[in-house]
Predict the 3D structure of the following.
Amino acid sequence: MLAQIIPILTAMLTEAPQIVALVEEAWKLLTATTPATVDQQAAIDAALEAAHKALQDS
Amino acid sequence: MMTYSRSMWRLCRPCSVLEDRARHWFAVSMWGAVALGVVVGLASCTTTPAVGNDIAAVEIALTAAERAALIYTSLPRCGGVATLCSSQATVDRVKAADQQAYQAMKAAQKDSGLISAAWGAISAFQLATPVK
């Protein structure tokens, strides 16, 4: 039972703050008056591709 | 009413306590997804001076929704001994909704007139993800 629960708890603890940070980032972009930089856009693209692949492979 | 000291409780029910914590963190993660839902909802009402940021916000919202969904799809599949588990049918629905949202986002990257459709697809994807 412990061996089963600990990896799940770890995943949840890891993901929860990242999800909140992403929501904040999305809100900042929506209310920004200046466009995202090329570097920011590249990081956003890379994060999306990684998350999409991870979900589709799960 | 029978009461337990903290140490007695730990000795008697260690797995139940951990399961409760797992459910708690699952709920915390899902609240993140709910907050994302608020952003998705408000985004359809917002006009942004920096148009390019609309697509970036769609991408980030989709990334957050995918990470929230990954917590569910990474659980062991139901049918074995696992008490915290994910249903294969639900996982398939989540993945299909994710793929539709992803394709809607890609279409919006090429044509900014499709941004509203992309937000709608992300919203549908979120609804397909179980919250408990």
Confidence is low (pLDDT under 50) at residues 1-15 of chain B. DSSP finds five helices and no strands in chain B. Chain B touches chain A through 53 residues (CB under 8 Å). The first helix of chain B runs from residue 6 to 12.
